[in-house]
Amino acid sequence: MENWKVQSLRQLAKKRGWKVKGTRKVDIAAQLIPKLNDPDEIIKAYHTLNNEHRRVARAMSLLGNDEGVTQEDLRNLAEYWGELKSHKHVGTYTRHLRELGLALSVEEYHYPPLISYIPSLIQQHLPPPLAQALPEPNNESDGDLRLADPYALSRAAVQTTMLLEHPPTSLRPPMPRPRLEKFFKQLQEWDYVPEELIAYKKQGKLQHYARIYLTVPPAAYSLPDEAIERLSPIAGGVEQLQFIYTLLLEGNLIQPGSPVTIWPEVKERFLRLSEDAQRATLARLYFAARQWNDLWPLLRQDKNLRLERNWNTTYFKPSTLQKHLHRFRQVTLRVLACLPDNTWTSLPELYPIFRRFWQRFDADAWEISPYHSYRRSEPDWRLAYGDAPLQPDKDTQDWDRAQGAFIRYVLSGPLHWLGLSDLRFENNRLSAIRLQGLSDLFWDKSDSPPAPRRAVSRAAKEASETTVVIEDLTIKVKPSAISAQAHTLLDKIALLTEAAPEQFTYDLNINALHQSLEAGESVENILAAWRQAMPLKMPPAIQQKLQEWQQAYGQARIYQNITLIEFADDHALAEMKAVTSLEDHLIAEISPRLVLISKDSTQILSAELEKAGYTPKLTASAD
Q1: CATH dotted code for 37-123
Q2: Cis peptide before 167, with omega less than 30 degrees from 0?
Q3: Residue 481 has pLDDT above 80, yes or no
Q4: I need a labelling partner for 323 at 20 to 30 A (CA). Which of 19, 183, 426, 620 fits?
């Protein structure tokens, strides 16, 4: 509300039937903000809109306010459900929505102009924009039905994280660089098709201003073949494994570089989350991930489909391509998030909505030159089918091969793996979808929406005693059938000695327990966590062994790189704590006159003591 005038704020309050006091803008805004965010008030304001304003609001929800979306796009989409007759300019409708506090304006001085938008804080309380806006499928029982498992991917992610450490896994080496890139900057950073480069070179077409396009092959999988063979059965397939690896990297569970290195603190935080929270975390990582490319799997599946890049654009880099494809994913997710949950939607009925505003599938889909009002005739990249570039803005079949295939992949790939979309196929082609929790996550309605009841009951049924077998001090588990919390618990008391897709073997280990005790755990807490996370009681033999090890813990301790502080009397310690940061550096209090601190803290405390008026005596260490 920084750019609003006092008069505009008062008019907003009047339109919404609110009384405000005061004359200063800051005071009036403070009274309005809680009301503007109130769910009941938002719904009340929405129901005051007539049909035309609701259609414009629906179109605003579908389009967002990303760069390149125009007033023309907004009107064209809103009129998919009927002509707008009340006002000549669509901006009049958006102004009315802003005056009601249901929409916000964007930067006034921006080229190209950005349309007003409905923020997520408002959108999350509105009815699903596409509810009752599309006809339902004729017969829900027809076709091949594939229900999503909401926990399959998060459990596979947990297993994959643990197995990447046992044994340590190196990454696949990058593609060798061509010698020609010394002479042509256009080749730098890009993967390539060697045969194509050789052919162009022989034909003399590799000139700096040649009008040619180079094929961009799908990126190789990050993990080497032996790791894929070992881990893909756990992930559910090689594409799912690449997806999991990318999300782990995006979420900092994995550190960049080779070999694969797990970040222990981040892994610990992730494993402590509930399964619903883990699923939500992975979903949000997918929404934001720039390192994941939804196009590569399509290129692998259909050998006729190719990604081409313009030879003449030396400034165009792989990071820019990733930015464009991430935008396409956001466009897809935004429209899907406008659908109601737990309702079947026919994809042939949904495609025309996309086609209203998403005509092109290339670098210029929404990219407009800041200096000219026209789009470039030769985009930086494009899709081709066979030997001809696709023209989805002119040909319906080409649109289906590009945008249609992309939308179907997002639904049947990542969203289905994440447990957010149920699928129905007819003649091996995705024909209808039913979403489960996507809008909650996309619009931030909920931190971690619960899984469908059918999935909860199935998961509970799986968690039977057959998933855990205990022999003496060895615990064998079916990794996909227990929660991440169970794996975390076992890590605290045992070592993972054998890891196979269908069975993890843990051996109770005194060092593992002592590390947990060092971190502040106790056997009592571990017993309580076992009762919550494991499907059977802890055997007495294991419980007794843990208690024995806890009693033995700390009976003898060896400190390295420490400094011993000796005080002259029993009262000096309390005085030192009061005037210095000694409390923050303590390792142990041996007695009222003897304490241990780390060697690195010696100079800090010595300076603080001198500043407080004391003269500490430093004795040289005997190295």
Answers
A1: 1.10.10
A2: yes
A3: no
A4: 183
